[in-house]
Amino acid sequence: MKPAAFAYAAPTLVAEVLDLLARYGADARVLAGGQTLGPMLNMRMVTPSVLIDINRLTDLQSIVLAGSGAMMGAQVRQRDALESDIVGRTVPLLRDVLPYVGHYQTRNRGTVCGSIAHADPTAELPLALLTLKGTVHLASAKRRRQVAAADFFLGVLTTARQQDEFIVAVEWPNATPRARFAFEEVSVAHVAVVACAAGAEINDAGIVTRLDIGLTGISDRPLAIDTWPYLNAKPGPAWRKDIAACVRSTLPYVDDLHASAAYRRHVAGFLVERCLAEVVAMAPGEERVVR
Amino acid sequence: MIVDAQEEITVSFTLNGRKVSGRCQPRVHLADFLRHHCNMTGTHVGCEHGVCGACTVLVDGRAMRSCLLYAVQAQDLQISTVEGLAQGPHLSKLQEEFRNYFALQCGFCTPGILMSAVDFLQSNSDPCEADVRNMLSGHLCRCTGYDAIVKAILAASK
Asked: What is the CATH number of domain B93-157?
């Protein structure tokens, strides 16, 4: 399959990208790694008149520690994020999740910000950003703004990004020294049917003081649950079962050709229980073995 | 600068150590450029949407789908294809192990898998079977059942 004809621009400055987006907006697409946009172009599911290739930009390639989080520029490849010391030290959940993203060959080219921009409802990186309460940094010729992950993912391949904006970076909050994380996924051919990410802090008395749980693959976007009813508790088996029951009863589950809603509901509860058992069993800050 | 959709632009890059150049529209993907403009037909075109892995080449040393890169994006980069692996009549160690283990039948997927394995072995000096199978999840082979490919790559890593 060959893409429909498109005009091509390869700017070297962010300002040029913003000018092009201001001029072409809805008719343009930003090309980063192209590991999901490429297939859509080749299958002519999208036919932009202008492709704005950001691979020649020189200043969005780095991961830097900025105050409360790791700022990851638009050109950071998934493989580089996986191999980054900063990610390993400060965003351990992201390090756990990245091996599940695509394949070795697509991680070599695909970017972290590109996966966030694409907002596939089965993708692991949007789930991780939502669970960690990360932030998307958007820029247009008119303004720069930051959008919380919870407000960014709006539906299937749909985000809060406006047509003249592009994602210059995503910000991953630093894990606290007491934080523990887990990630579990049930997939078919490496595409998540259900995936769950969890983060928790447990104090010296064994009481849960912070809890974040997100799920994806179940709906049109990644979803986080309200965890406040489960704080200030001892994290035993009954506590885990209560949370799994809440996940099964309160979240929406889609039926599609990959799995029934009933199956997804069952698996979601199971994965939540498993993630919670993992975070409770870990010592604070313990490294999880990546499979 | 914007290249118009119908406009042909000159693309130059290093292919297996030699400078090549040709003219094409922006929509021509790298795999087609290699095959039709460079006459390097070792890179195979299978699904053309990034799933099968047959078109995998090295771009600045990293294994990538050449159907998901447009030739214009390869400007000034280093591209390596299966044609660059053997030295004259002498197969590379990886290719020898593919022969020893009968790790191919029809050979359609083989060039892509070889290029992935070159990158993979450069960054994983002592991989286990699970690592190799994980890397191979990015390739489809309908002949071998993968076992012989796994064995060949593990043997090449020793």
From this structure: 1.10.150.120
